[in-house]
């Protein structure tokens, strides 16, 4: 009842009661309940011995760790058993890969790689926290109540108490040879950085700070320790807002990180001495410096990155820990802004000899490699496509990545390069081929196999292993779609193109139900993907947050809808120029690209122009609102899922101010751009039904957007057209199974009511 009063206080007279049953016609093939049961793997890694693969399954918002034999001869088994609302704080393996250790209930549990009932790892870890595994995997450091720092040797099952502190112990970091441990202690007198020698049982404080010490990391040769302290911003800063439309009983909170950067960085010899300041901002703090977290090029230099030129220039520099001048390793400048989010930042090879990075100088994201000592970068990849998620092999002789091509933007393949002393003689091998989206390669411990994720038109994300060889035969490790579902019922998308508002060709993915009677006209739906910087694929989306929408569209196809998903300008996967074409035009031609998909549908002949719906999430919700306020008669019904209602509101949110200004500046600089990006101010134009779905815990697009949108709709006399469903405690991407199930039933019922997919009208 209290929830109802809250909603009533917000003026949500159009709220749909949770108790109200939603009619649902029987669906052939897959059901909404089966959709919710599809699991989504993520974070896949190899066990230390390479015999198994471990990963996290998202099962309706409940995340647990699973393991499966890398030869695919057995089924995956759950290693943890967290329930809804529970979460783990990381995990690690025994050196032989036979035992997985994880935290739960304030202690440490151990479970065999083959699954089974977990046991207490060892008695002293029962009330422990802050577990840190040594680089060689043989020891674990952790703290217990009373601030004792313990080192446990896994094979010998023995404990060694390193130190005791009256205050807090944290920030443990192992030396490269696993013989020493650096950690911090803090109390009323500030913080101490301590180095303990495990074998000798000695310890010494090597640095003191009045504030907190963090970011502890060893130099590659173990001669010294890097750390940070201070910072003018402190912890997160909360901003409270109570707009007059809401009243003073409700406070909306937005949070930003502490101002002033990460404080000062110092280097101190492990044997003791005077700490030396390290300028990780790259020679004078010219903006955006980073590198204090142990991103070591060698034992004397750190890798730091900075931005300048209003965010249009990116520079990677070698920072001398002894105070010498910074050395520019590579620098690139964009005419507009850096739009890609899936590219690879600078990555140092395990032997510290090579530096790789991704740049779009050619118009496409290509991989480059250069010596860490400096020199001219060598372009490794050359095909017209986007090369992302590059990873080094353990022996530093190979780099694996996933990429698409200009003519097949929805497929991604796993490739790897073999490099030697002469980078110009690098060879490239394609591991996968054919239809499907193959992403996120991970090298096996012996560098002979590659673990990756695969999706296609009939399969949601699953894990595969293949030999590091050309066109290798893959081994499937997981099956995420519920047993009993006929995969042949799924509809494969078709890549189509249509002209945008300025004549530029807009790519889109068309889904036509199987056995559709094309002599008649049918209902259709335009789906607008979120994020702006995203794309659709030739099959299931590889990311869980997008995949749940892809699979729901498969359900809608079975109801008789034609579906189209445009990749409007700003979408990734089509090169730099298409990504960057939203500069100073957010909500302009990009939004028109998306809604002009309706015109393409009308041209097909088998789509009823009077029964086209539109919906979108986040940025797609923003486009949906723009469509129904700027062209009110274009769509018969619309669904806005957590959409931006006004970009001035988005700019004011500290979590998103930088994202917004990089694309359209500030409201003071470009009031005209912000004026057209404010659908909330034009809701008086809406003519057709609108369903709004939003979670109260949304940090991507704050819940306040939809609350103020409803206020504007009611004031404009549009209350009879709007239905608003609030999901308490839910985040931006609906995750919990009961929320996803309810949302899909509501969208299904809403579109059925206004678009009538069961009706086919004569041409």
Q: What class do helices, strands and sheet pairing give?
A: mainly beta
What is the CATH topology assignment of the domain at 2-30 and 505-762? Rossmann fold
Mean pLDDT rating = 89
Low-confidence stretches: 1-27, 283-293
Give the biggest sheet: 9 strands, mixed
Kindly estimate the percentage of residues that lie in beta strands according to DSSP. 35-45%
CATH arch. level architecture of the domain at 2-30 and 505-762: 3-Layer(aba) Sandwich
Count of helices? 12
Shape verdict = globular
Number of strands: 47
Distance separating the two termini = 50 Å
Estimated helix fraction: 10-25%
Determine the CATH superfamily of the domain at 2-30 and 505-762.
Alpha/Beta hydrolase fold, catalytic domain
Supply Rg: 28 Å
CATH class descriptor name of the domain at 2-30 and 505-762: Alpha Beta
